[in-house]
């Protein structure tokens, strides 16, 4: 039998310092290590993390510099019966942001419509043709959600036409801010005093909703029933699940499990998922892809309508349609991924990968880029064509800031936007494309080292099998919800004995095993490790990296190890 080498470089966290352990004798060694790994070493921070309080662990929405001005303008719009349009985006964050603000504005009696752009024909953010259309439809006030900060020309156009624009966004500050906007709510722009800088677009929109709920005395119940949508978008947009985002997600998942929305109820039914078990994985791999599929393949309006629909029959039709759209998206994505793989192979020595695929739908370039980055641990850009336009999307690793890189070559783009880890852009012409590829590859080569490109598994603690028990499962539940900024813990166990092994799954691509240490047996599952069934012999001694999970079937529950990497010792 062949020896199995690990797929990743293993990085074991620094051991907890004894002084910290002595200060918290009531906490277990495992709990203390996990807290230490998250830089949580003060009682107040630990309490806030382990037991987030909805009422206390949020910031006052009126800490935003312009929040009073925004609320006053909305009050004026109500008084004068002005028409408000909420302008969203076509992804799960933008759609969700539009849904909660629409619901709140409706509740206070506003005349409000929602406008979501078409990804292919209009692109991201405000569009000059859209601005004209909104003006022609007698719009008085535009409120952007999850977009707008990069739309200085379009907002100037709206202002010249006599409309006012309020920007709510969370994207990075561009070189030129929209100075003709009436107000800007964006935690990351220069001079903004709002303390928490990692809100998703839906987080900013929710802070506006909170300000309106307080001003118009709508009550806490109305606010909390928005949290299911807030949690979905916060998870879907991959912002750090810390501070307020942790509060939104923890309480939002509780609401999601009991949700009253016909649209989400029907979506759960269509997906065959029990809402009562919903967690961050459910959102990331089930709900968010369905909501995103609408904007990627057709129009985001379908996802928006699902979130606000109150009729169960109509909601069922919408949910089933979204499911079909998502299946189509999956099929086209697989085809695009195969095309991409051929180009990736020719760039194995490059620090950044660029794939050009003229047939890839604009809505899928980000997905393909993300897949490449996950598989290669390199920044990746996927570029396609939409009519005469050259459009692309990028995904990155922590060591390479995409949006800052794009800002150094601002003159090459018709428009662009994004974050350090993700971007979208439209290039001016073929010459700009060629220059862009050269310059961004050079930047990556300058800024990245070979060690930055190695795939690393961050291991929280080495465990003996005696420590893997239901008490540990309960502790790990307390550390949830998991996501960006709070990864689900991975553990290492050394010198475990392989007792049984087999390949499972339709394509035999997964691994089922039983291992033991010190007389304690544990079942395990390794997704994507099926080939090792022929390479590892029963009796082999192994080092395992894994997450602790619970396998449930026929009313039974057992602890199992979800294997992330294997090293054979014999």
TrEMBL record:
The keyword Nuclease applies. Residues 460-565 form the RecJ OB domain. The keyword Zinc does not apply. It holds the Pfam family DHH. GO terms for molecular function: 5'-3' exonuclease activity; nucleic acid binding. Residues 83-234 form the DDH domain. InterPro entries: DDH_dom, DHH_sf, DHHA1_dom, RecJ, RecJ_OB, SSDNA_exonuclease_RecJ. Keywords: Exonuclease, Hydrolase, Nuclease. Residues 354-445 form the DHHA1 domain. One of its GO terms (biological process) is DNA repair. Belongs to the RecJ family. This is Single-stranded-DNA-specific exonuclease RecJ.
